[in-house]
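Two quick folds needed for the group meeting slides. Do the first one here.
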Amino acid sequence: MTKWKPAPVQVLIALNAMLLFFVLLEDHLSIPRWLQVAGRLHPAILHFPIVLIVAYTVCLWLRPAFFTDQLLLLAAFAAVITALAGLLLSAEGLYEGSAIQWHKWLGTLTALILMLLYLGRDSAILGKVRQKWLAILPLAAVITAGHFGGDVTHGAGYVLAPLRTANPTPPFEDALVYRDVVLPVFDARCIECHNSANSKGGLNMEDSLRFVTGGRNGKPWDTTAEGLGLLLHRIHLPPDDGKHMPPSDKTQLTAREAAILYAWIRDGAPFSRKIIDLDPTDTLRMIAARLLKSSGSERFDFPPADDKKIAALTSNYRTITPLANGSPALAVDFYGAAFFQPKQLQELSTIKEQIVSLNLDKMPVTDKDLPDIAKFSNLRRLNLDFTRITGAGLSTLTRLPHLQSLSISGTRINAADLDQLAAIPSLRKVYLWKTGIAASAIGQLQVRRKDLELITGFNGDTVRIKLNPPRLETDARIIRDTGISIRMRHFVPGATIRYTLDGTNPDSGGQVYTVPFLVKDRSQFQAKAYKPGWLPSDPTRATFYLQRYPPDSIHLLLPVDSNYLKISPHVLIDADKGDLGFGSGKWLGFRKNAFSAVLYYRKAVTIREVSFSSLVDIGSFIFPPTQLEVWAGPDEHHLKRLGTLTPVQPDSILGRKAMPAYLTEYRIEFPPQPVRCLKVIANPVAKLPDWHPGKGQHGWVFFDEILVN
C-alpha cells in the first residue's frame, strides 16, 4: 500500500496540538470577529467527521483493506477541524452549562483518539484485531458528543423525550399558575436554550430560584418598569432584531402564550399561587379554564366534528380548538371586533352539535344574534362580556338545555332581566361584573335559585365594600346649540355623587350632584360615588364634544372598506357618537383607501377648527392616521389647505397590552375662515410595524363624527 507523505501527518499533529491548547486556555482567549465566522461553520461541517468515522469503522470490520487508512486520516482531519470550529463558536459566550462542557471535551477526545489511531495504525502492538475494537472508541465518543450537542441546541433530554411519560395534567381546582400554565410555555419555547445544562446568557429557567435571579443581562422582569422588564421586552422586539426571543429560527410564541407571560408578570410572577385563587375575570384564570379540565369534567356522547370542517371555519379572527385532548367538544373564540359579522355565527351551524364553549368577549354582538347562539344545543359556557346585548334577549338562552356558565359582565342588563336567568335550570354560574345591578335584586334571585352562583366581584360581608360607579343616564355626547342635560343616579341609598368637568379626580373639589344640569361646552366628565363606611367607587367617565356648525351634507370621494358599504356617510355628521363597538353601525372604517370626504353648507359659516372623532384599538389593527388634512373654500373646485396634523403612532406592542381600546379626537385649528365647502383627508397606516402581529398588513382608521366649530 502506498504510504501517505508525512506532511499531512505533521499538519494533523499541529492541529490537534492547537486544539488541546485552545481547550486548556479557552478562558484566556479573545476571538476576533473574522475568526468568529469560522466558528459559526461548526453546525454545517459537524456531520462530515460522523460519516467518516462510521465509514472507517464499517470498512475496518467488513473489508479491512478497503481504503481504511485513507478514511481514518480524513476522519481525523474532519474531527479536529470541526472541534476547532466548535471551540471558536463556544468562545462567543452564547452557550453555558454542563452540556457544552461535555460536548466540547468529547469532541476534543474524538479528534485525539483518531490521530493516535492513525499514528499507530502500523504498530505491531495494535494489530488488526485490536484496531477493530479500538475503532469503536471514536465512534462511541462522537455519538456521545452528539448527544450532548443535541442537549445544547434542543434542550436536555431531547433525544429521549418522546419515550418519557408525560406528567398528568392536574384538575383545574389543583392547578398552580406557574407550574401548569406558565411553565409549559417556557418548556416549549425557552428552556431548550436556558437550562441547567445549557444556560445561554447565564439564564437558567429550569430552576425557579435561579430563574428569578436572571442572567448576565439582569433580572427577567421588573413589575415597576415600563414594559415590565427584560423578558417581555425581548419577546416584543422585531423578529429580525438579534436580541429578539425566541430567536427567529425557532418556533415563535403564539398570541395566547404571549398573553400568558404578560398576565403572569403583570400579576407579580407568582410561583406557588393556585389558579382557583385568581379573580374570576383574571386573564390567567380564563386561559387556564380553557387549558385545564375540572376534576368533574364531563364526558360527551356526541361524535367529533370533521377536521376539514374545523379547518375551513378557522381563521385569524375565529379559532376552534378541542376542549381537551381526545375530546369531541369544541371551544370557539372570536377575536378582532372590527372583523366580526353575525354571519360568522351562522357559519358554525355545521359543527353546532360539538360547540360547548363560545367566547364572544367584546364582540359587537346584539340581541338579534342570540337566536343563532341558541342553536348550539350542547353549549355549556357562554361569554358575552362587554357585548351590546340587553336583557330583552336573555329569554332566548332558555333554549340551551346544558348551559352552565354565563358571563354578561359590562352589558346593559338590569335587575328585572335576572328573572329570565332563573328559567335556565342547568345554569350554575353567572358573572355580573360592572352591570350596576343592585345587591338586593341579586339576593332575591339567589333566594329562588340557591343552586345558582351570581358573581359580582364581592365575596365577603366583613370588609368595606366599594360602591358601584354612578350611572350616567345621558346618552348624547355631542353638544349643539342648547347644550346637553346631565342626569345621574346611584342604586345605593344615601350615596353622594361628586363630579368634575375638567377631567380631574372628583375626590377633591368635585361638585355634589343634586339635580340635572346643562353642559354647553366640550368637557372631560368624571363622577364618583361616596358613602360613609364604603369605599369610593371607580369613576364614571365621559367626553362631551362640541359641534357648532353641523354640515348639511357629506360626500365620500373614496369608498369605505367593503364591510361598511351599507352604512351611510351621514353617520359622520348625525351627532350620534359611537362607542368602542365599531361594528355598531355608527362608524365608518377605511383600510386600503384613505378617508377623503367633502362636507357642504347651504350658507357660508365662519369656522376656526375641525375635529376628527376617532377610535384606536391596536389589537384590532386600528391605528391613529398617519396624517390628517383640512381644506376649505367657497366650493369644491376652489379649496385651499387650512391645516394638517400628524398624530403620534404607538411604538410598542406593550402599549397595546397595557392600554385597552380608546376613543380620541384629532383637532386641527386655523385662523377664522368663511366656508361653504370643506374637504377632510385622513391616511391609514400603509403597513403595520414589525412588532405588531399583523406586521406588513394595512392598518385601519375609524371615524364616527366630523366636528366643525
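Then this one, please, same format:
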Amino acid sequence: MKRSNWFVGIDLGTGSCKSVVVDGEARVLGFSSAEYSGLQAQDRWQEQDPRDLLKAAILSAKTAVTESGVRPEECAGLSIGGALHSVVALDGHGDPLTGVITWADGRAVEQSRALRSLPVARRLYQETGCPVHGMYPLYKMMWLRDKRRDVFEKTWRYVSAKEYVFARLTDEYLVDYSLAAGSGLLNTHTLRWNPVCLEMAGIREDQLSTLCSPLTIHKRLNPEFAREMGIREDVPVVVGSSDAANSNLGAGAVHPWEATCMVGTSGAFRVISPRPILDEKARSWCYAIDEGHWLVGGAINNGGVALSWLRDCLNETLPKSSPDSLLSFEDVLTLAGAAKPGAGGVICLPFFAGERSPNWNLNARALFIGMTLEHGVRHMARALLEGIAFRFRTLKEVLTDIGVDVKQVLASGGFTKSPLWLQVMADALDRELLIPAWGDTSALGAAFWALLSERGGEGLEKAADLVKRGDSCRPNPESVEIYNGIYPLFEELYQSLEKSFDKVAELQAQLKRWKNNGIEGKT
C-alpha cells in the first residue's frame, strides 16, 4: 500500500451524515458533518427525504476530502455505513414512493402487536434474530400493504437509506448482511432472505437488493458524483456494513468480551460474537455482519433524542427573536451537572420515542416521577441522563443472562464529548469506560472496511490494531452505591406502569383522531 493512499468512510446516521478521510495507518486527515434539510426536528427522526440524504452524503464527503488536502487520484477506497431499520419504497424508475421510514417511526405498532402473542413470533426471532417489533422494516412493509395499498402495488423495490445512496452512487443495488439483518427479513443462520418473512410481508425476493459480504467491491462511482466529492471515478467502493457494526469496528470492540456503549440519537450496548447468540425471552437481537461474525446486544430508542426533547422544550420558553439565547446541548448538560447523583429523588423513565430492548414496547411513554416543589429543571436534566444510563444497565444485564461475559466497555457516540454523561454512565454500569481517541466511531468504522479491503480483505479483528485509545472514565464508588439503590426502583416503576402505557398510547391516538376530525376538546 502506498503511504499516500487515503480512504473515505461515510456514515448515514439518523439526524446527519458524517464523513471521515483516513490514511493507510488509519490517521484521521479530514472530517465533516452535514445535517438533513427540509424537515422539522421531530419529523427528521421518523421520515426523511432520501434525496436529502444523498445530498448530505456528497456534501460531507466533499468537505472532508477538501479539509484533508489529499489528491483525488490517490483515493484507494470508499465505504458507506447506514443506520439500521430504515426502509423506502421505490418505483420502477428507482424514484421514491415514500420517504425513508426510520427506526423511530411508530406506524407499524399494530402490525407487530398482532403477531407478538402468536407462536410464529418465536419462530421469527429464532430464524432472524429480530424480536417482533414495529421498528423493523418487515412490519413497515406490512403497514404499507394494509394502509397504503396504492404505494404497495406500485413498489418495485424496498431499500434502506444506505442502499438508496449506494445505488445512486454506483447504479447497483447491493445490501450487506448487517443492513439486511436489521430489516427483520434475513435468516441469521443461512444469510438468505427468509421465505416466511417474505410471505408475511407479501413481497417477492426480487423486490429486495442482492445480499453480499461487507468486503464486496464495486469498481466505479457515478462520474458526476465523483467529481462533486473530489474522488476519482474508478475508486473501489466497498459495500461496508451498518452503522452499528461500524461503531464497534471504529471503537476497536471486535472480540466477544468487549462491548461498545454507544449513545447517539439512540443508543446500543453490543458485542461482536463468532456465532449467533439468541435469548429464550427474545430480549436481545442478533444481526449477522459477515459469514463468521454476529452483532449481539440490545438498543434503546432514547439517547440524544431525549436530551434534544428537553432542550427544545426549554427553548420554547425563550424569545424567538434572540436565537443567540437558545440553549444548546452543552447548556442542558450543565444544568444536569448542577444536581447531585440521584437527582434529588427524581426518576425519569426516558421512553420519549417508545422502547426497544428488552421489552420491545413502542407504546412505552416517558415520565418524571418524584417531583416536588423543591425540584427544578436541573433535577429533570440529571434524572434524564440517569434514566438513559439505567436503560444501558438493563441491556448489560440481558447480555450477562445469555452468557456474554463483558469484561471491557468502550464508549462511542456523541456522549463521549461530555465528561458528566460519561461519569453517569460509568457509575450506573459500575464499569470503567474506555474512550477511543476518535469519537465518531461509525464513520471511522466505515473507512476501516475500505482500508481492510485494500489490505487483501483482512478479518475485522484487525480493526482493533487501527484504533488509538484515548482517556478512560472510572466509576465513582459513592455514586455507584446511590445508583445501586435507585435502579431496582427504576425497574419496579416500569413493571408497575407497563399496562398503563397501552392505555396512554390509546388515549393519545384518540385525541389525535378527534383533532383530525375537528372536534378537539370534546369529551
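Slide caption for protein two: The first helix runs from residue 41 to 44.
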